[in-house]
Amino acid sequence: MPQEILMDIFALLDTPDLVRAGSVCCSWNSAYTSICSFGQYKWPQTPCLIYTSESASDNVAFIYSLEEKRTYKLTLPEPPIHRRYLIGSSNGWLVTADERSEMHLVNPITSEQISLPSVITIEHVSPILDENGAICKYRYSRHTADSVVGPPSTYSLSTLRDRFFHKALLFFTSVGSYIVVLIHNPFGQLSFARSGDEKWTWLPPHSHFEDCIYKDGLLYAVTLLGQIITFDLSGTVVTTKIIMDRKDTYGAERVYIVEDPFGDLLLVRRPEVSIKEAPAEQGHEHNVCASQATYESRSWRIAIYKVCAASGKLAQINDLDDHVLFLGHSQSLCLSAEEYTQVKPNHVYLTDDFKSVSLKCRLRRRLVIGMLNLETKIMDEFVSPRPWSNCMAPLLMILNPRKMDLAFHS
Fold it and tell me: Which residues form the F-box domain (predicted)?
């Protein structure tokens, strides 16, 4: 079969099928390589779940395909993925924090890994050295641009990641460059690093950020109050603009900002839901089914609004029609169910977004993961029984078969 026809066929495949096709024979591998090199594969892909499991070795992660309802096993580079925290995913890349609280970008399909600037270059973190000059602990400063909100704390190398990081996302800003945006404590502040940077850049004075996206050359970030601020990170001086100055009342919630397929912005409020596991019977693990969980929430209602930046107002949306939302500790997405037929229209696919991994484990807090029907307000499981680790939540991510160097030099 001519390679041009193969490439036309391959361009319609989701990543698992595309990778399998590329391993059939030399000519198919050549078509696969060309597809990835020139970025001609289907994009965005149907989201997948990526997770680790206590039953697997430390370097193994799993991908559950929402399209195929099938699980794939991946071996990822050191340090062991099972010992890292997954603090975000976007554009096919994971952002992880290892046992020294150092961050890496990882592409689970290509196995590429990129070290990000050291955590000690962030405004609020400084190293504590032992007698040999090696970093043994971190000093964490609790300050904002306006005030010091508490005395500094000293954390072990592995503990800092649990107390400091909230969410991190990778955005390609142009051919040849990217930025990684980090939402961190105290009080949900922002820092970012460009490709090639040796340190993180702090973005004061705003705080209480919950989510961000990159659109039309600007970073859009939303706060817990519903305030939306844009950042132009393209120059040596960062410029900001408040496009929606709201101070909404809120409870225990998560807030997301999403771009829909038409280019409009959506603001989504999700109530914080706590699910406690039923006590395990002797000899049985704490990996319970939904019927054993106790739901401690008023409802599964999620509030969705269309953002009108010109008027500074929000218009509530009662349903998504043929669209579907993906929300959690990863890039927030809104896709057309007509184009991605294996996902359900008018549903919100949720993964757990509780900020502290260790607190989840101590509270024996069951991970909130499932598909919410916006019409019935009923939550269904992605997959049952749940195969992932009890404390480390899986992430929704779109797989990316393209290597970073190819993405930079196309």
Answer: 1-46
Q: What distance in Å separates the CA atoms of residue 194 and residue 172, rounded to the nearest whole number? A: 10
Residue 285 confidence (pLDDT):
36
The full DSSP string for 315-371 is EEES--TTEEEEESSS--EEEETTTSTTS-TTEEEE----S-HHHHHHTTBPP--EE
- State how far Cα 290 lies from the chain centre: 24
**pLDDT at residue 151 above 80?**
yes
Whole-number pLDDT of residue 259: 96
Rounded to 5 degrees, φ, ψ at 6 are: -55, -45
- Report yes or no: 267 and 226 within 8 Å, Cβ to Cβ: yes
Which one has a higher pLDDT value, 249 or 20?
Answer: 20
DSSP string, 38-60: TT-S-SSPPPEEEE--TTS-TTE
Burial of 345 (0-12, 13-18, 19+ CB in 10 A): middle
Mean residue pLDDT across the chain: 85
Whether the predicted pLDDT of 118 surpasses 80: yes
Please tell me the distance from the alpha carbon of residue 336 to that of residue 261, in angstroms, as a whole number. Answer: 7
Closest CA to 392 of 85, 89, 80: 85
Q: Is residue 100's pLDDT more than 50?
A: yes
Alpha carbons 265 and 345: distance in angstroms, whole number? 19
User: Tens digits of per-residue pLDDT, 373-396?
Assistant: 999 888 888 887 777 876 678 899
Q: What pLDDT does residue 21 have? A: 78
Is the separation of the CB atoms in 128 and 120 below 8 Å?
no
> What integer pLDDT is reported at residue 223 of this predicted model?
95
For residue 61, how many C-alpha atoms fall within 13 Å in the half-sphere facing its CB?
Answer: 27
Burial label for 304, CB within 10 Å (0-12, 13-18, 19+), is buried
Q: What is the pLDDT of residues 307-332, one digit of tens each?
A: 988 888 899 998 999 999 999 999 99
Which region holds residue 297: left if phi is over 0, alpha if psi is between -120 and 50, else beta? beta
| Strand, helix or coil for residue 34 | helix
Cα–Cα dist 87/166, whole Å: 7
Indicate the helix (H) or strand (E) that contains 387: none
Please provide the distance, in angstroms rounded to a whole number, between the alpha carbons at the two ends of the chain: 26
d(CA 253, CA 269): 7
